[in-house]
Amino acid sequence: MQLVVRRSALRMWLFAILGVPFIIFGIDTLGGRRLTTRITDLIYPGENTVPPAIETHELAWAWAFLVAGGIFTVWALKELIAPRRVVTGDWRGVSIGLAGPFWPATRVPWSLIDDIRSGTAGDGESDFPVLVFDLRDRGDLPERPWGARWVDRDRLAVASRDWDHSAQRVAVQLRQLAGEVLVGESPVNALEATPFLGP
Asked: b/e per residue, 99-132, with b = 16+ CB within 10 A?
């Protein structure tokens, strides 16, 4: 059995759309504010027939918006076309992308995992779902994990708000997988992929 969790396609599509205004603003500013001037003229007819001169700091902001919007949109489209695995569970353990978006996933062997469950965490403004790992030892896990945080010395909470399945369902599947592995299931059978239950 194998469990694979990826980012939600809907969220990635929304992220890609959010990058478009940054790109439009950057191109419009570098191109002489033609679009902005037309929109202003529709709102205030005849008051802004000649766009004001573009200053140096505005050019810097335009390039910053263009580059940031481009990177944001390209990254989101890449995740739509070839989504990265955020969590993978198999007979060897659980692999999580804790090192960052451009680094390989970190594998946590079953021997280090005491319990897996879903929960919630807060960032001061709102609560969001997390997948919680109670570990016997941190091992080589990063001190500042990407997309996760250490709640206690050996308790790791991984943010799951942009996953294609709920943290509760992932926790159930991982516990089931751990039970099958720990009762002596062979690696060959453990690697056979099974359908994942809905979110």
From this structure: eeeeeebbbbebebbeebebbebeeeeeeebbbb
Which helix (H) or strand (E) segment holds residue 6: the answer is: strand 3-6
Q: Where are the beta strands (DSSP E) in 124-169?
A: 127-135, 148-152, 155-159
* 51/178: higher pLDDT: 178
Instruction: Say what the pTM is.
Output: 0.62
Amino acid 116: pLDDT = 94
The H or E element that residue 108 is part of is strand 106-109
Q: How many CB atoms lie within 10 A of CB 49?
A: 9
pLDDT in tens, 106-138: 899 998 999 999 988 887 778 889 999 999 988
CA distance 119 to 93: 21
Residue 195's SS3 state is: coil
pLDDT tens track for 51-98: 666 677 778 888 888 888 888 788 777 767 777 788 889 888 999 988
CA 64-70-75 angle, to 5 degrees, is 130
Rounded to whole angstroms, the Cα distance separating 80 from 4 reads 16
What is the layout of strands, in order, in the sheet containing 106-109? 3-6, 85-90, 93-96, 106-109
Cα angle at 147 between 143 and 153, to 5 degrees?
35
CB neighbour class for 33 (10 Å; exposed up to 12, middle 13-18, buried from 19):
buried
